[in-house]
Design a protein that fits this description.
With about 450 residues, this protein is an alpha/beta fold. The protein contains 16 helices and 19 strands. The protein folds into three domains: about 1-125, TIM Barrel, CATH 3.20.20.70; about 190-285 and about 405-445, 3-Layer(aba) Sandwich (Rossmann fold); about 295-405, FAD/NAD(P)-binding domain. Helices cover about 35% and strands about 20% of the residues. β3 (about 100), α5 (about 105-115) and β4 form a beta-alpha-beta unit. α9 (about 200-210) runs parallel beside α16. About 45% of the residues are buried. GO terms for molecular function: FMN binding; iron-sulfur cluster binding; metal ion binding; oxidoreductase activity. InterPro entries: Aldolase_TIM, FAD/NAD-bd_sf, FAD/NAD-binding_dom, NADH:flavin_oxidoreductase, OxRdtase_FMN_N. Its cofactor is FMN; [4Fe-4S] cluster.
Length: about 450
């Protein structure tokens, strides 16, 4: 153990010599490397004790970068605060202050960690990308206004690809020097937004903050668009809650939100808007294969409304992001789940940080059948054709249809000439991600 700590101690001695006795030194370490062959928590405590004489603050994380990216940066599949126990145990063995972190975004949980003596300091990283004003909101008792980190790894994936950051819920991250902060419009205008999904809500709030008069039409009785479908999946609850946070921002900014209102050409033109932002979203892609409308079929977007229909043996038809995440949830619920995907791999379009952790979560929980095309649904499962046109039957009592989304181009076509300025954003422009919808909504409002 002495030799394993030697390099760290020599570095710390050198740093102390350079900065002098009055400068605080913080040391970050993993409480456990969390894999067979790595050091465990017992050894982590011994390492902490050996390092302690040379530091002023011990920052306890987990895992290694060589194995298990999701241990050091907990994914949505892990509990919030899953690494706190490591800091709590190490704190019993050292006298310097101990800090903890790992997927924390709830102020109440963070307060509890401190109150229970599990750590002296709580750190956040991704949570402050999502909402840099989180500490200010906590101090003002405005916890409900915090825009929570989704733990979707957009930030990490973008850094891997472009060496910068992006954030699904904060379109300013990585663009700080581009001059795209909200500024008052020189001339207030009347703006109509069609659609109350994430892109439409972001557009409406941004336009209202710029001083425009904003009306938002939503055809459903609840805001959120596609985010509503996430409410039945516990590890995606932050996505559902995002719709409430964005809606609250809109109401506070004075947006006139009209629920149960379908935006027709006549209705929009009656308002005589100076600008129209179309954020009508997408609808599920449901191919006309035999049996697709049967009682044993649930469209993945409607699962939150029809989950009681799902029996113990499930076939998920479609191995994209929605299908894979639904399969994980169903397996967690104790279902026997098989994912059927026409392509050779699952969710190839998912971001490079989230995808491997998602596949790791599926491993051992879900049966995966790639290279199969569903051609008929029966009460006993899905009949498929493989890549050599051989018939293959995948058994199941319930079928979840997760074959993607299709843009609502009909809405766009009807409304595209209803105002002097018209902008189409989000899925109704091109089916993509929540990240794209929020970014496009924000910038559409800046352009008015």
């Amino acid at each position: 153990m002495e030799n394993r700590c030697r390099l760290a101690i020599e570095v710390l001695k050198s740093v102390r010599k350079a900065v002098g006795p009055g400068f605080p030194i913080e040391f970050r370490m993993s409480g456990s490397e969390l894999f067979e062959g790595g050091y465990d928590l017992e050894e982590g405590c011994r390492i902490a004790q050996m390092i302690e004489p040379y530091i002023d603050l011990l920052h306890v994380s987990a895992g290694t970068y060589q194995r298990g990216f999701g241990d050091t940066h907990p994914s949505m599949f892990k509990e919030h605060g899953c690494n706190v126990y490591l800091a709590a145990e190490i704190k019993k063995h050292v006298s310097v202050p101990v800090a903890t972190l790992g997927g924390l975004n709830d102020p109440e949980q963070m307060e509890q960690i401190i109150a229970e003596g599990k750590a002296d300091i709580v750190y956040m990283a991704r949570a402050l990308l999502a909402d840099p004003f989180l500490p200010r909101k906590v101090m003002a008792n405005e916890d409900e206004d915090i825009v929570r980190c989704l733990r979707c790894f957009t930030c990490m994936a973008e850094r891997a690809a472009t060496a910068t950051r992006r954030c699904t819920v904060n379109p300013l991250i990585g663009r700080e020097i581009e001059g795209c902060e909200i500024a008052k419009a020189p001339v207030p205008k009347k703006v109509v937004v069609v659609g109350g999904g994430p892109g439409g809500l972001k557009a409406a709030h941004t336009a209202a903050m710029r001083g425009h008069q904003v009306i938002l039409f939503e055809k459903e009785s609840e805001l959120g668009g596609i985010l509503k479908s996430e409410q039945a999946i516990p590890f995606k609850k932050e996505m559902y809650e995002l719709s409430h946070t964005f809606a609250r921002q809109c109401y506070k900014a004075g947006v006139d939100i009209r629920l149960n209102t379908k935006a027709t050409k006549e209705l929009v033109e009656k308002e005589q808007p100076d600008a129209l932002i179309i954020a009508a979203g997408s609808r599920p892609l449901v191919p006309e294969i035999e049996g697709i409308h049967g009682d044993n079929v649930v469209i993945v977007n409607q699962y939150y409304l029809e989950k009681d229909k799902v029996q113990d043996e499930v076939v998920v038809l479609g191995g994209g992001l929605a299908g894979c995440e639904a399969s994980i949830h169903l397996a967690h619920e104790g279902k026997k789940v098989t994912v059927v995907e026409m392509r050779d791999e699952l969710a190839p379009d998912a971001n490079v940080r989230h995808r491997p952790l998602m596949l790791q979560e599926m491993d051992g929980l879900v049966e995966i059948r790639t290279g199969l095309r569903g051609v008929r649904i029966t009460e006993n499962g899905v009949e498929c054709m493989d890549q050599e046109d051989h018939k293959v039957t995948v058994p199941g009592k319930t079928v979840i249809c997760a074959l993607g989304q299709r843009s609502r181009t009909d809405v766009v076509d009807e409304l595209r000439d209803c105002a002097p300025y018209v902008c189409t954003i989000g899925d109704c422009a091109k089916v993509a991600t929540i990240t794209n919808a929020v970014y496009q909504g924000y910038h559409a409002a800046l352009d008015i």
